Each structure stands twice: as C-alpha cells, then as structure tokens.
Amino acid sequence: MDSITRCSVIVVGAGVSGISAAKVLAEKGVEDLVILEASDRIGGRVRKEDFGGVSVELGAGWVAGVGGKESNPVWELARKSGLRTCFSDYSNARYNIYDRSGKLFPSGVAADSYKKAVESAIQMIRHQEANHHGGGGIGGADLSKLSEQLPDPKTPIELAIDFILHDFEMAEVEPISTFLEFGEREYLVADERGYEYILYKMAETFLFSSEGKILDSRLKLNKVVRELQHSRNGIMVKTEDGCVYEADYVILSVSIGVLQSDLITFRPPLPRWKTEAIEKCDVMVYTKIFLKFPYKFWPCGPGKEFFIYAHERRGYFTFWQHMENAYPGSNILVVTLTNGESKRVEAQSDEETLKEAMGVLRDMFGPDIPNATDILVPCWWNNRFQRGSYSNYPIISNPQVVNNIKAPLGRIFFSGEHTSEKFSGYVHGGYLAGIDTADSLLEEMRKEAERKAENQTFMLEPLLALTGSLTLSQTDAVSALNTFDIPRQLFLTSKLGMPEAIL
Ligand SMILES: Cc1cc2nc3c(=O)[nH]c(=O)nc-3n(C[C@H](O)[C@H](O)[C@H](O)COP(=O)(O)OP(=O)(O)OC[C@H]3O[C@@H](n4cnc5c(N)ncnc54)[C@H](O)[C@@H]3O)c2cc1C
pTM to 2 decimals? Predict the structure, then answer.
C-alpha cells in the first residue's frame, strides 16, 4: 500500500462537474485538494475521438439551449474558447422519413402522424400529471381507460415518430428548463480540439499545465475509487491500485449509473433514503455510431441534415445525421441508437453492427451504395466508469428524488449532471451542479470552522480559570490552544460540537 495522502477535499471524477467544482474551491482558497479520476483523461462524457480524418464527439455533441434571454454558461465557455460550432435543426428530421423500400413519406403524411403523436403524448402527460398531483380527480382507472383510447404506435412511421418523440424530443419533463431559460437553439460542436477543450481551458485556470497538458500533481488519473469510508471525523478513500487518501470532505461526481452499480463501496453503507432515490432515476443509454464512406450518396442541402428510417422494430437504426454541415467532405454518417438497441449493439461485434447499418442504408438508398470503410461504436453502457449516457428522470417525478440524490451525507457531497434539478442530462447541468456543490461545501466548511472556534473557546474557559490568565485576549487564547494536542473527537462530541453526521 502506498503512503496515505491527506488533503482538505477530494473530488472524485474529472468530468465537467468535478472540474467546475474543483475550480470554484481553488478560487475560494481551497487549494489543498486532490482530483481522483478513474480514466486516463479529464472530460468524462465530453469526449472526442479522431475518426475518418476529423474529430467526432462520442459523448456530448451539442451545446443545447442557445439564443434565449439568459445565456447558457457552457455556450459562454465555448465562445470564449473559440470553439467552432454549427447550428443544427432536428425539427426537419420528421420531413425526411424513408420507408423500407427507400420511398420518402409525403410531408403531409409525416406531419399528420407527427401532430397526432404529439397530441396524444401531451394528453397522456397532462393526465399523468393530474393523477400524480391528485388534482383533476383522475384516478388510475381513468388513466388506463385513456391509454386504451390512445392506441399504441403500430405502423413503421408511427413507431419512428414515437421513437424521435419519446427518446429525443419529449424525453424530458415539460416545460424543458434548458430551452425555456437559455433558448431553443442547439449548436453542434465541430472543432478538431473537441468539446472537451472547454474543460481543459477551465482546468488550466487552477491546475498547473504546460503546452496544453495538465501537469499538476493534484490531478490523479487512472485512480479508480473503490471504497469510501466515512465518519463524522473525515473520509478515507481507497483506490483500486491500493492507494489511500484522507480528506475532510469528498465531492463525488461519478454518474448516476456508477452510483447504481457496485463500483464504489460505502462504509458504512448508504442509508435507504439515498439508495432508493438513486435507484429511482432512470439511466438513458444513447449511442452515436459513426460510419465513414468513400463518397456521399445521401441528400445534402437545407433541411436534410437529419433523416429517419421507418422500420417495424422501434428504434432500429431510426435516427440518422450526415456530418457535411460540420465537416464538409468528411463523408461521415451518424446513426443514433438508444437503450435496448444500444445495449444490443454493444454486446455484438462491430462487423455485425456494420452489416445491419449497411442493410438499413441499402433499404433507403438502394443496393449500389458503397460499403462503409470504417465504423466507430462507443460503449457507454459497458463502460464501468459510466454505466449509461445520462440521467433521465421520469417525466412525472417527485422533486424529492433529485433532492435526496443530491443531499450531502455527512462529509460526502454529491455532484454531477444527475444532481441538477433543472438541467439534468446536459453538459451545462453538470457544470452548474459542480458550482452548486462546491458552494454548498464551502458553506459547510465555513460553518465547521465557526463551530471549531466556538468549541475552542468553550474548552478554553475552564483552562483560563485554572491558570488565572484572564488578561489573555480570546483570539490569543484560541490561537494558543491550536498548539495543544486536543483530540478532534473531543470537539465533535462536546455539547457545542458538530451535529451528528446524517448517516
Ligand atoms: C452519447 C452522449 C451524448 C450526449 N449528448 C449531449 C449533448 O449533445 N449536449 C449536452 O449538453 N449533453 C449531452 N450529454 C450529456 C453530458 O455529456 C453529461 O451530462 C455531462 O458530460 C456529465 O458530466 P458529469 O461531470 O456529471 O459526469 P461525467 O462526465 O461522467 O464525469 C464523471 C467522471 O467520474 C469518473 N469516474 C467514474 N467512476 C469513478 C471512480 N470509481 N473513481 C474515480 N473516477 C470515476 C468518470 O471516468 C468521469 O470522468 C451526452 C452524453 C452522452 C454519453
């Protein structure tokens, strides 16, 4: 076992929330911190990879929520870093729906199907909401009657529209805070340095770096946290390689999927209210598969960036995007799979996935299109440091769930996109959650310092009475006392001491 490293705060995870939390702490004078990151890089789910001659985003691709009254802080960071972006308009996708014989559905048919699907989804949500809040007097029986009246999507076009509505556009609680507060526009990052560049720029402000590389010894990569031993006195963190770290506090910014897995053992175990809340949050798996071609055979031009494949199996290679707007001449297509389909392709070889994707493309564009020369299939589900792509709270969910996930547990503070009440699932959600968690921790540190000072005075009074040194000022006395070796436990159990940790 390596020697024990001690510090004030350990931040577990160097994704956007871990980095933004650490930055706030460092700026507020808590420089005695360590960041433990399981992988060999910072960025987490903001991750680029070189593919087919350009840089593609395996995780977050868009800055979502731009053009509103308030400015999205991640958009601000992107602008300051000079990140290249291009406007994306999903809404056109519904007018480019192909059937299995390669025929485009007439736009009237597509628009009609779309309108019907939106109306019934809204009706269902309203009823669920009324049911949930007990208002409107709608009981479970009425809800099931309503479900019968709103038939399930059955035809390929209905299934395709259902997929884009529920796995993309309406996968969130309405009204969507991101669009309401920051605007409805979305910009795709198309920059060789990747979306992750904004994280490097953020990290550089408080971690020592040179020539674009972070060299600060407080950032420790390849450190997989496996155990958190927490008590009212402090926290001991053990990593997979046998290192031990001790700190007064921990900010845990790992994903909700990791919290749901058994990667990290808590001693003592997390209480029921915490584990139950963690289990209640759904995890979305969202997989962008990249395909490189020798030349393009798909339509380009205005309104053609996205297209849909209507198949009798819901979500089967449904949602496509070409990358000509982002990287003209790159000849790359992206197809997005979710949940069950994502897990299915992660479990098979890339060759099999390529064969399926080519079958779908030949259905849409004919037998003569060229084979893809390369494929990239990210695995967010089987990555034990992620276990999914992002949190997806049920459309109708109790705010207490997110509050309990976020609530600190003694000296452990929770962060990450899943702890953001308004912006969960987004990069800006992770960024703002990091700031929020760091602020809460700073407040707790301030209170703890106050409690300590009070306790020291409390302990000092009898001493002063004994020695008769009543001329000593309180400040002098307290600083003198700092040199005494008084066990911490004494403060913590004294009557003015820190309240019992909430365990
Ligand atoms: C495919 C995909 C597409 C997305 N698209 C968008 C988009 O277009 N726009 C958008 O705004 N958002 C998008 N998101 C969501 C966005 O990427 C996330 O919300 C955000 O990046 C989460 O940041 P985070 O810091 O909360 O978590 P993470 O980035 O997951 O950071 C947590 C870190 O903890 C580390 N870690 C895990 N376990 C341990 C351990 N035991 N010990 C030490 N370290 C550990 C991980 O390696 C990781 O680096 C997408 C995500 C995915 C996966």
Answer: 0.88
